[in-house]
Design a protein that fits this description.
It is a single chain. By secondary structure, the protein is an alpha+beta fold. The chain has 4 helices and 17 strands. The protein has one domain. The radius of gyration is 20 Å and the shape is flat.
């Protein structure tokens, strides 16, 4: 029965992942977690731009998504002179904002700038260049515990050593305070984040990951699933691994 359930569950996971199949290169496990902002800024084929800010209602913070676009030298000079990107098509570029709704936005984002609308102070989320897939403010949780957290789905490591952070790398999960401070990785290195769910009545955020257990560089049915929750019931959150299949 365990084998049947595992096979069915794996099929569900694959269907939720679409065509994405990261390929892990274990030849250099001491590699840095990410490309740095400085290394990309030094690339003269890229331009750093910002999207219009996002405001989480009833808070003191604006969030400015920023990212890099790749354009040739002629386009770069002309666009910088115009001071506008609105008439250009960058659908194939690195930076994009794909959707936005209350307390959530997604896209292909390199970094975030947090701005306090009262003091006007600004701070950068991290000095690393990331690929942030989505940002979610846990508003309902903040009403319960009077503390504010943001969750992030992030590609932070170039696992296949191709020089890019993209869909061929691993999704991970991070958490921070509302102002972007205490930005912390929640998932284990080389574990693929496969979604989560906030249970507000339980004050816990449940999520799962997949580990390339046999170290063959791909995720498949012989690999291991891990289940966790973030417990927000105390003054500081705690990440706990649990096993919902222990009775089977």
């Amino acid at each position: 029965m365990r084998t049947i359930l595992s096979s069915v569950f794996f099929a569900i996971i694959l269907s939720s992942c679409g065509d994405k199949q990261p390929k892990i290169d274990y030849t250099d496990q001491n590699q840095s977690d990410s490309l740095t902002m400085d290394s990309i800024v030094a690339d003269t084929t890229k331009i750093l731009i910002a999207e219009l800010p996002v405001y989480f209602d009833s808070t003191e913070y604006l969030v400015h998504p920023i990212g890099f676009i790749s354009i040739n030298e002629r386009e770069s000079k002309r666009i910088l002179k115009m001071g506008s990107y609105s008439d250009r098509d960058y659908s194939n570029s690195e930076f994009s904002i794909e959707s936005y709704r209350e307390d959530y936005f997604s896209g292909n984002i390199t970094n975030l700038v947090f701005e306090n609308i009262r003091t006007k102070n600004q701070s950068l989320l991290t000095d690393k260049a990331l690929n942030i897939n989505y940002v979610q403010y846990l508003r309902d949780l903040s009403k319960k515990i009077k503390r504010h957290y943001i969750l992030y789905s992030v590609i932070d490591m170039d696992i296949n050593h191709d020089g890019h952070l993209d869909s061929q790398d691993i999704n991970t999960m991070y958490i921070s305070d509302l102002d972007g401070t205490n930005f912390t990785k929640i998932t284990e290195n080389f574990h693929e984040y496969n979604g989560g769910k906030m249970i507000i009545q339980d004050l816990k955020y449940y999520f799962r990951t997949i580990e390339d257990y046999n170290k063959d560089g791909v995720f498949n049915k012989v690999d291991k699933y891990h289940y966790y929750y973030i417990d927000f019931s105390n003054d500081s959150y705690k990440v706990v691994e649990y096993n919902p299949l222990q009775l089977i």
